[in-house]
Amino acid sequence: MKGCPASIFRSIPEFCKVRRRFPQFFVLVLSVTVLVLLLESLKRIVSMRTRSIQRTESGAEGSVEYKYEESPKQECQRMMDKRNGRRIRVPASRRLSWDLLYFHRDVPLCGHDRRMNLAQVSGGRNASVDRVSWPALFLKAYAIVAQQVPELRQTWYRWPWAHLYQHPCSVATLTVQREMHGEPWLFWGQIAAPELRSLSELQRAINQFRDGDVRQVFRKQLQLAKLPTVLRRMVWWWNLNVATASRAKRLGTFFLSTLAGRGAEIQLPPSIHTGCLTFGPLDENGIARVTLAYDHRIMDGALVADILQRLEETLNGALLHELRAMQETKCSEAA
Q1: Does the reported pTM lie above 0.70?
Q2: Residue 176 pLDDT more than 60?
Q3: Range of the domain at 201
């Protein structure tokens, strides 16, 4: 086979068989492709390890040469520009979301909406000295309703046979977006038993998710994102199909995701939980659209409608009373 770089294949018997089986043209194309991939990989490694850049600017008085150190964000932007027109691997920041959507396909989620009048709750938040976020209010309200409705604490298992497992208490999972090395990451913060915590405790936990050190707060999720796809999917599968009590600790019993702070609504949030809650921004009348996406294998629409009604009553009842009590306590302490 003249013109074929046979030295590349002499060390590998399988490739030698390919040589005999395929025409000379295909072997040549394969050789060139391998060589190009090796050169591109080497070039990428060298460029990633080069942090300092020398620039030369020419001016009226002559040339000026200087060095500067790139920040991680600038380096990320420069690398993204070099990826144009190329196939790139899935970045680590998208792998966990990719895994979530992969297993979300097995959960038959349906979504129901309710327009809730939360004007009084909004007034209580504005009057409170210690500002309590809407996610903290919804997390606690949902957990209180889940104590009354056990279906919200149940989980569907497919293996080794179809069955349900009921958790003794709720574990909230809150979606948190953080930026690390110039890339947006999606993390999930867990809060155990929100119904037993005060609004101040819940807000401190949310602040830790939002402002704490990402490497410490979400250390396990960062470690999981570094694993190969096969190993990550094995960990996810074990937690979803085998683990019982530890599943709630690692993944939670319900899910809250919202874009209300950005003025947007989520129509049907993807989730692997029995219940996934989301809400939109309040309008001028204090009314918000609240959506509960649920596993239809465990609940029906009539029950979900009742749950949304109880959720509104809890927000305008027990939680509004707690907000006012917080304000009265602060006023008494100040006096």
Answers
A1: yes
A2: yes
A3: 95-334
